[in-house]
Design goal:
Elements lengths: L15 H14 L10 E4 L6 H9 L3 E4 L4 H4 L8 H13 L13 E2 L5 E3 L5 E10 L2 E8 L1 H4 L5 H4 L10 E8 L1 H4 L2 H9 L2 H8 L1 H4 L1 H10 L10 H23 L5
Parallel strand pairs: 1-2
Antiparallel strand pairs: 3-4, 4-5, 5-6, 6-7
Length: 254
């Protein structure tokens, strides 16, 4: 481990840049001009944001950062959710809960996008064009006569007691601005055969560190309070982890 720090934040979005800067600082103290000029950086979806992707690109760091749709785009995981969805519905029935609301894929859209048909067989008509998060979309809205008395309202509307009609957006593609975001560039990079191969190496480099510290060394929770003390405890365990690796594998590299 070349840098470790306990930040005390639930989200990781704002932690990538300080981790990169601190790691670079450690190597500069050892005489390395810029360690990231000769290595590759991988990070999981918790660190993915447009700001972080822009930072990595501006710093010219060869990075591979997953996003929260990374697995779903992988053809090897194409059918991974089919059992999860069935299990979710069966559990909801056992507990007497309703399953999730009707999604866009439950609606049938006309070829000319003049209207769409809902699961109850009623038509929602085109209600304009919009841009949502750098995507072009066509909006559809149901009529009051079709939605107000529908028997499927509780499965269609999140708040059926105060929402009169259902609206649906059909996405037709990314806007030009959306195609050129730093996030989209990273998606194209990590979705390549080389990108997936490099990212998969995290399973053998990063994850075993946490497995060793949590399971073998017993740090399954912090026993101190305040950020300063927690950070000290975390760094102490990281130092011991490094010393054990040096003791076990160091002679082979001497």
């Amino acid at each position: 481990m070349v840098h470790a720090e306990a930040f005390g934040e639930a989200q990781e979005h704002d932690l990538l840049e300080p981790m990169v800067n601190a790691t670079r600082g450690h190597f500069e103290a050892l005489g390395e001009a810029d360690v990231f000029s000769s290595v590759k950086l991988t990070a999981d979806a918790g660190f993915h944001s447009e700001a972080n992707m822009k930072m990595l690109a501006k710093a010219k760091i060869d990075a591979y950062v997953a996003d929260n749709q990374f697995r779903k785009r992988d053809p090897r995981f194409a059918e991974a959710d089919r059992f999860r969805e069935r299990s979710r519905k069966e559990r909801a029935r056992r507990e007497g809960r309703r399953t999730s609301l009707f999604a866009t894929q439950d609606f049938i859209f006309a070829a000319d996008l003049s209207h769409c048909t809902c699961p109850a067989g009623k038509k929602l008509y085109r209600n304009g064009n919009v841009e949502i998060k750098n995507h072009h979309a066509v909006k559809f809205r149901g009529s009051k006569s079709a939605c107000v008395g529908c028997s499927l309202r509780t499965q269609c509307l999140r708040h059926p007691e105060r929402t009169e009609t259902r609206q649906v957006a059909f996405f037709t593609g990314r806007s030009e601005e959306g195609k050129n975001t730093f996030t989209e560039r990273m998606k194209r990079k990590i979705d390549s055969a080389v990108g997936r191969m490099l990212y998969a190496m995290r399973l053998g480099t990063v994850e075993p560190v946490f497995g060793n510290i949590c399971a073998a060394m017993g740090l399954d929770r912090f026993t101190l309070r305040t950020k300063r003390k927690v950070n000290t405890q975390w760094n102490l365990f990281c130092i011991v982890h490094n010393l054990k690796k040096i003791h076990q594998y160091g002679p082979g590299f001497a």
